[in-house]
Amino acid sequence: MTTWTDAHCHLQERYLSGDPAVVQSVSDTLARARAGGVGTIIVVGTDAVTSREAMALAQAESTPDVALYATVGLHPHDALSGLDEVAALARRGDSRLVGVGECGLDYYYEHSPREIQKRVFADQIQLAHELHLALVIHARDAWSDLFDILDAEGTPERTVIHCFTGGPNEAAECLRRGADISVAGVVTFKNAHDLRDAVLTVPLDRLHVETDSPFLAPVPYRGTTNEPAYVADVGTFIAALRGEDLDEFAAATRTNTARLFALPR
Hints:
This protein has one domain (4-260): TIM Barrel.
């Protein structure tokens, strides 16, 4: 069976229990992931609560069959809540902690003022530098400011643009700054022409696959609750798009994500 890594997902209680129709047991979700060939999952924090939950899940649910690792971060939607508690979690040095983020800029929804988003993003870049952790970036409708901040703060050596939705030009600018590209189920949507064009330009050794579950389920599951098992569908679609051998593509993305997050061999 082809083995996959889900480079970005959310398994925390907040995301899985908000709607009684989609309540999921983490153990059941992980069993389906294992059955689908997923061997490693990165559980991503977006504020203090979900960051704590990500670390707890990585400690409690990781098994020899499916290894879980965590990131801690403050999403731009929640930038007003302040970074102190997230930064304290990051500095705690948990053995399953592998990254800072999800952080960045979101000018589509603008749930937080732009200036606060920019300041909190810059602070998390510096936190990743300080702790030598990977940086996980959220970018939506904010490319110019995103690039300006990365240039000013310095892109950490291990950085990824998660759920990349730009086109070839944005991909080139990310790569030029040393950031990797991670692609979610959006690539399977029929109107994602620019994204598919961008995916064709990314060197194989800079590419990752993710679900961003429980959001953005890929075709043919679009409109349902996403989960890590579906990373195989994302990866299979991208390998076919790029004309690459499926097992070789899966192995390359596993290697890339292990390098990005400095996962144990």
